[in-house]
UniProtKB/TrEMBL annotation:
Residues 86-115, 188-212 form the C2H2-type domain. One of its GO terms (molecular function) is RNA polymerase II cis-regulatory region sequence-specific DNA binding. SMART domains: ZnF_C2H2. The lineage of its organism: Eukaryota, Fungi, Dikarya, Ascomycota, Pezizomycotina. This is C2H2-type domain-containing protein. It comes from Diplogelasinospora grovesii. It holds the Pfam family zf-met. InterPro entries: Snail/Krueppel_Znf (IPR050527), Znf_C2H2_sf (IPR036236), Znf_C2H2_type (IPR013087). Keywords: Metal-binding, Nucleus, Repeat, Zinc, Zinc-finger. It comes from the Eukaryota.
Length: 267
């Protein structure tokens, strides 16, 4: 069952603590008892008994930064801190929700910019960032790509309609532009949502966005089936793991199949 002092394998006891015992072992070449608790003086006749003791009295080596729970590995401690406390130990930050914390962990702060645009030299932290870069027409290497072109590309690789909607008769996004009639006497007002803007240019930017366009994509999970107007939006939905359809890493690995190459889309 052990004793009240740290002990060497030679039988000598060290009431002063484990550091004195460690100094003794270094000086003599002796070793400490094989199955010793990670945090107290007790040692056992088997690893199973040692493990049962540490689990029963919360004596594992890795202690949570928020509560007094201990864990057998650093990975287990990190997972506990993230899932139970929404805490990032590297940044010493706590988040309001598990999803916010996960998005932080998947950001460039922790992952860097490892996803490369296949058409230019741009690098992005997530698949969402890459797809938004292409859909917005910002890629210098593919200036003709936009939301509609990306949808046609995805649709050609998704004949079963796993993520893309089969829009019979669809010929492209509608175009809208504000006129002087959009001025309501105090602001430029959107005809569709009645949102108000200080300048006509700002209203036109709003009208050129996908805000009032038809949804082109849907989540394939039967219990979700959320609809999305851009590929970036559904990719972000997948990356957040909100509905559990796929994992973040899987999205990063498959995004290339959606925008280049001849492979059909699959998860």
């Amino acid at each position: 069952m052990g004793n009240f002092h740290f002990e060497c394998s030679c039988g000598k006891q060290f009431p002063a603590g484990w550091r004195a015992r460690e100094n003794h072992c270094k000086a003599t070449g002796h070793i400490r008892p094989r199955w010793e608790c990670d945090t107290c003086h007790r040692y056992f006749t088997s690893d199973t008994a040692r493990w049962q003791h540490m689990e029963a009295v919360n004596h594992f080596a890795w202690e949570c930064a928020i509560c007094d729970e201990t864990w057998p590995t650093e990975k287990a401690r990190r997972e506990h801190e993230a899932e139970e406390h929404h805490y990032c130990c590297d940044c010493d930050r706590t988040f309001t929700s598990y999803n916010n914390m996960k998005m932080h962990l998947n950001s460039s702060t922790h992952r860097g910019t490892k996803i490369c645009c296949p058409f230019c030299s741009g690098k992005y932290a997530t698949a969402t960032g890459l797809v938004h870069h292409l859909e917005s027409g910002s890629c210098a290497g593919a200036p003709n790509l936009n939301r509609d072109q990306i949808y046609r590309m995805v649709r050609s690789k998704d004949p079963s309609g796993m993520i893309s909607k089969n829009l019979i008769g669809w010929t492209g996004s509608s175009t809208y532009e504000a006129t002087d009639r959009a001025w309501n006497g105090s602001a430029w007002e959107c005809y569709f949502c009645h949102r108000q803007f200080g300048q006509m240019n700002s209203l036109n930017q709003h009208l050129k966005s996908p805000t009032h366009q038809q949804a082109l994509y849907h989540c394939p999970k039967a219990s979700c089936r959320m609809e999305f107007k851009t590929l970036a939006a559904i990719i972000n939905h997948f990356e957040s793991e909100t509905c559990g359809f796929t994992r973040f890493e899987n999205v990063q690995n498959r995004v290339g199949d959606m925008i280049k190459g001849g492979k059909l889309i699959g998860f």
